Amino acid sequence: PRANQRLDKERRQRALEDPLEMEERVDRYCQFLQKNLTAEVSQVGDERPLTQGKFSPDANLFCTSSWSGFIKLWKVPTCEPTLTIRGHEDRCNTIAWH
After folding, report:
1. Distance between CA atoms of 24 and 70, rounded to whole angstroms?
2. What does the pLDDT look like over 2-23, one tens digit per residue?
3. Long-range contacts of 39-46 (CB under 8 A, 24+ apart)
């Protein structure tokens, strides 16, 4: 019940929010994440634990690596998965943008 109340409150706030203000808020948050987030990523990105996460240089994509050996690309800020690549047969520990 409390979760539903929080979701309803968030939906009401978003309905009243100016789209430009929301876009600016999302941009500021993405810039903050890009500067402050390196290896601290959510465990929801894969069936096995994630080992690293990094933003692309233009901050439009977020890349994760995991113990499953998969490398995944996610759209920012929607977090939609865009590409999954088998990087290794076992753990993939690091990733780098070139």
Report:
1. 32
2. 888 999 998 998 888 888 988 8
3. 45/72, 45/74, 46/70, 46/72
8 Å CB contact between 41 and 52: yes
Q: Which residue has the tokens 């009401």?
A: 12
The two structure tokens encoding residue 58: 């233009």
Question: Using CA of residue 16, residue 44, residue 94, residue 75, what is the dihedral sign?
Answer: negative
Rounded Cα distance between 73 and 90, Å, is 18
8 Å CB contact between 32 and 11: no
- Asked, as a colleague might, if the bond just before 77 is cis with ω within 30 of 0, I would say yes
Measured CA to CA, the distance from residue 50 to residue 57 in angstroms comes to 20
Answer yes or no: are the C-beta atoms of 84 and 71 closer than 8 Å. yes
Global pTM value = 0.55
Residue 90 has which token pair? 């076992």
Beta bridge partners, 12, equal none
